């Protein structure tokens, strides 16, 4: 499912490390869908992505899958493991901030990211989008400290790391949806967030990141063509109070 930001995180590592030939990528539909009995036997949470190894081990959760691939293919993935303990810690922190504060949710609740594309009330959407904006400011502040060697990547200056793989697909969501449907200024404008702007430009100049951008953004265009933001009530909410959701 190209629209999945979590699946895209794993694909980015596969593309960058030249491991496409080692993994057969299938849609959950091949097993009857995320809620099918066959899929739930492998991953009771009914979510994606999911990796099944050659030994039959079911490995769910994108961060765990990435960790498995780093261990399984150390030579191929070595360039994308930050080279110092400080840089690896920085990559882990940025990944954690993304996974917990942007993409994590209480049971039955919505993630902060969900404010961009899921049905919810006006107050909840306003709060989610405000939190999203604050998380971007926090990431910008982390990049401003120069601990990544001047960038442009999140943890190092030399090469992308697991942090870049984690954040980039979600930032495709933000860049696509926030200005288009909620009236935001460009979240990565250089005058607004210069360090994230530089990082975004570096990602888009990389062929593999650009490939994932095309996959995810293309799927999001399909959502737009299908009227998703009408169906979830977002367009009506914004029309009634356009300034409420802007950042």
From TrEMBL:
<feature type="domain" description="GST N-terminal">
    <location>
        <begin position="1"/>
        <end position="77"/>
    </location>
</feature>
<comment type="similarity">
    <text>Belongs to the GST superfamily.</text>
</comment>
<dbReference type="InterPro" id="IPR004045">
    <property type="entry name" value="Glutathione_S-Trfase_N"/>
</dbReference>
<dbReference type="Pfam" id="PF13417">
    <property type="entry name" value="GST_N_3"/>
</dbReference>
<dbReference type="InterPro" id="IPR010987">
    <property type="entry name" value="Glutathione-S-Trfase_C-like"/>
</dbReference>
<dbReference type="InterPro" id="IPR036249">
    <property type="entry name" value="Thioredoxin-like_sf"/>
</dbReference>
<dbReference type="InterPro" id="IPR040079">
    <property type="entry name" value="Glutathione_S-Trfase"/>
</dbReference>
<protein>
    <recommendedName>
        <fullName>Glutathione transferase</fullName>
    </recommendedName>
</protein>
<dbReference type="Pfam" id="PF13410">
    <property type="entry name" value="GST_C_2"/>
</dbReference>
<dbReference type="InterPro" id="IPR036282">
    <property type="entry name" value="Glutathione-S-Trfase_C_sf"/>
</dbReference>
<feature type="domain" description="GST C-terminal">
    <location>
        <begin position="86"/>
        <end position="220"/>
    </location>
</feature>
């Amino acid at each position: 499912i190209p629209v999945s930001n979590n699946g895209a995180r794993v694909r980015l590592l596969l593309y960058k490390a030249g491991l496409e030939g080692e993994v057969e990528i299938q849609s959950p539909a091949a097993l009857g869908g995320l809620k099918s009995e066959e899929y739930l036997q492998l991953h009771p949470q009914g979510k994606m992505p999911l990796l099944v190894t050659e030994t039959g081990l079911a490995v769910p959760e994108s961060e765990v899958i990435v960790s498995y691939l780093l261990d399984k293919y150390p030579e191929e993935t070595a360039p994308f493991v930050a080279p110092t303990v400080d840089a690896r810690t920085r990559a882990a922190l940025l990944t954690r901030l993304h996974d917990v504060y942007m993409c994590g949710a209480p049971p039955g609740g919505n993630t902060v990211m969900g404010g961009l594309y899921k049905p919810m009330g006006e107050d909840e959407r306003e709060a989610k989008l405000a939190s999203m904006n604050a998380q971007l400011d926090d990431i910008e502040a982390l990049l401003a400290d120069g601990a990544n060697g001047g960038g442009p990547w999140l943890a190092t200056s030399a090469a992308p790391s697991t942090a870049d793989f984690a954040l980039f697909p979600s930032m495709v969501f933000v860049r696509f949806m926030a200005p288009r449907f909620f009236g935001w200024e460009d979240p990565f404008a250089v005058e607004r967030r210069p360090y994230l702007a530089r990082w975004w430009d570096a990602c888009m100049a990389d062929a593999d990141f650009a490939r994932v951008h095309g996959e995810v953004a293309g799927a999001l265009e399909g959502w737009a063509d299908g009227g998703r933001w009408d169906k979830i009530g977002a367009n009506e909410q914004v029309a009634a109070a356009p300034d409420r959701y802007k950042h």
